């Protein structure tokens, strides 16, 4: 992630210092940037001169004191709070008093990272999506300690890098990694209940739902080990709210070493010559599968709005620009009818008697008051 963020900053004209404790990682990053730049020149997207100047703007170091003159540092190191806290403390002793210290963490609390430095008000979350040069979304996360000046300066800066910024509350998963949980969770649940196999659920989500990838394909792409670990950590961070409960199917796949593409086997077999399983292309079943996952995503998005994690506008932007959803979930909810969403959720809740299917109070209230999510809808 660090390399991608450095590329974005250098492309926007900044002098960038890229640091890692590991020399090999720096070499890899340099080689990758060279390759990316060569490809952009080849495609005629940038001139050779621009490519060269972007590369010369980035310097590589293992010495944190090289950050002394920086106005902003974006940390993108290993996802461990103890390691991040130690690095922030060291950084504060090196940089100037008005340097902004940001973290690209996906799951740790910005408040706890901020608490590790003296001037906690200078710390903010700046969360990019992978790959940073291609994904337009950046979540900006103020901690309770972050000053309004640091917040507006960081958001303005990232906007000037032509990114789409959204403001998110410092809560587990921020917007995208919270709202997207049912995309995996409900697909796994329906598989476990025997509604359909992996291929059929993936087919339905792509062909009928309009998503770029199906949930099982996507989990195989991310890695079942990584995706399972995130689900477990989100579940624990939400005090074991059943909405985020992990699945045994994914746990067993991960334990078996069936991580997905990277290990050659996941929900699908990626060995050479392996035959991809055929989906059951039953339209009625497909529509049922898509609607159940979609209504759970809508419920999650509505609850994020209800709990002021972000504005309705930013929640829709986050899901379309951060994970390429074909439509914003709240606009989708309007289209489907909020009454229909509440009805389905209530049916699921009545059927299973599980808190996992509780309807967001916001959806219920909006139906009662005959409201829609966006004025233009
Ligand atoms: N991978 C993603 O899709 C993604 C997306 C958004 C945010 N993030 C976040 O970005 C951060 C990095 O993730 P990643 O996937 O790039 O991880 P990674 O493991 O690929 O890279 C982390 C790098 O940090 C270096 N490092 C470790 N400890 C260090 C230290 N003390 N000082 C300096 N460098 C150190 C490692 O050598 C490694 O090169 C994490 O906080 C992660 O949550 C990742």
Description of the molecule:
52% of the residues lie in helices and 8% in strands. The strands form two sheets. It has a five-stranded mixed beta sheet with strand order 3-4-5-6-7, sandwiched between helices. The protein is built from 17 helices and seven strands. Strand 3, helix 4 and strand 4 form a beta-alpha-beta unit. The longest helix has 24 residues, at 283-306. With 377 residues, it is α/β, with parallel strands linked by helices. The structure holds nicotinamide-adenine-dinucleotide. The site of nicotinamide-adenine-dinucleotide (NAD) has 17 residues, from helix 4.
Search tags:
N-(1-d-carboxylethyl)-l-norvaline Dehydrogenase, domain 2; 377 residues; 7 strands; alpha/beta
CATH architecture of the largest domain: Orthogonal Bundle
User: Per DSSP, what share of the residues sits in E-state strands of 2 or more residues?
Assistant: 5-15%
Rg from C-alpha positions? Answer: 22 Å
The helix content, as a percent range, equals 40-55%
Sum this structure up briefly.
The chain is α/β, with parallel strands linked by helices. It has helices spanning 2-11, 23-42, 48-57, 81-94, 110-114, 148-160, 176-179, 181-192, 198-208, 215-222, 224-237, 248-255, 283-306, 312-322, 329-336, 338-352, 361-368; strands at 16-19, 58-61, 72-75, 100-103, 123-128, 137-142, 164-167.
Write the layout of secondary structure elements.
Layout: H1 2-11, E1 16-19, H2 23-42, H3 48-57, E2 58-61, E3 72-75, H4 81-94, E4 100-103, H5 110-114, E5 123-128, E6 137-142, H6 148-160, E7 164-167, H7 176-179, H8 181-192, H9 198-208, H10 215-222, H11 224-237, H12 248-255, H13 283-306, H14 312-322, H15 329-336, H16 338-352, H17 361-368
Parallel strand pairs: 1-2, 3-4, 4-5, 6-7
Antiparallel strand pairs: 5-6
Helix pairs in contact: 2-3, 8-13, 9-13, 13-15, 15-16, 16-17
The chain binds nicotinamide-adenine-dinucleotide (NAD).
């Amino acid at each position: 992630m660090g390399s991608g963020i450095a590329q974005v900053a250098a492309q926007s004209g900044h002098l960038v210092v890229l640091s890692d404790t590991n020399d090999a990682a720096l070499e890899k990053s340099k080689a990758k940037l060279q390759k990316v730049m060569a490809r952009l020149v080849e495609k005629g997207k940038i001139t050779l001169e621009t490519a060269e100047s972007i590369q010369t703007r980035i310097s590589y170091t293992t010495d944190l004191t090289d950050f002394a003159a920086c106005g902003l540092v974006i940390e993108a190191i290993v996802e461990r709070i103890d390691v991040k806290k130690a690095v922030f403390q060291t950084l504060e002793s090196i940089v100037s008093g008005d340097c902004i210290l940001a973290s690209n963490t996906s799951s740790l609390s910005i408040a706890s990272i901020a608490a590790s430095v003296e001037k906690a008000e200078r710390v903010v979350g700046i969360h990019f999506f992978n790959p940073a040069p291609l994904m337009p979304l950046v979540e900006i996360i103020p901690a309770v300690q972050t000053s309004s000046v640091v917040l507006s300066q960081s958001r303005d800066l990232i906007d000037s890098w032509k990114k789409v910024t959204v403001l998110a509350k410092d809560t587990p998963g921020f917007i995208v990694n919270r709202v997207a949980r049912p995309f995996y969770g409900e697909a796994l649940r329906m598989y476990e209940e025997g509604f359909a196999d992996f291929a059929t659920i993936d087919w339905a989500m792509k062909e009928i739902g309009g998503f770029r990838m199906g949930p099982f394909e996507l989990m195989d792409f991310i890695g079942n080990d990584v995706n399972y670990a995130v689900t477990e950590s989100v579940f624990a961070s939400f005090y074991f709210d059943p909405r985020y409960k992990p699945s045994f199917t994914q746990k067993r796949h991960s334990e078996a070493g069936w991580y997905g593409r990277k290990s050659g086997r996941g929900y699908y077999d990626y060995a050479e010559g392996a035959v991809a399983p055929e989906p059951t292309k039953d339209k009625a079943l497909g529509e049922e599968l898509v609607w159940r996952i979609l209504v759970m995503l809508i419920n999650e998005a509505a609850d994020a709005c209800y709990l002021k994690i972000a504005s309705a506008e930013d929640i829709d932007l986050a899901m379309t620009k951060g994970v390429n959803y074909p439509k914003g979930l709240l606009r989708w909810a309007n289209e489907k009818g909020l009454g229909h969403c509440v009805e389905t959720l209530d049916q699921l809740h009545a059927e299973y008697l599980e808190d996992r299917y509780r309807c967001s109070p916001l959806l219920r209230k909006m139906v009662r008051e005959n409201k829609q999510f966006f004025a233009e809808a």
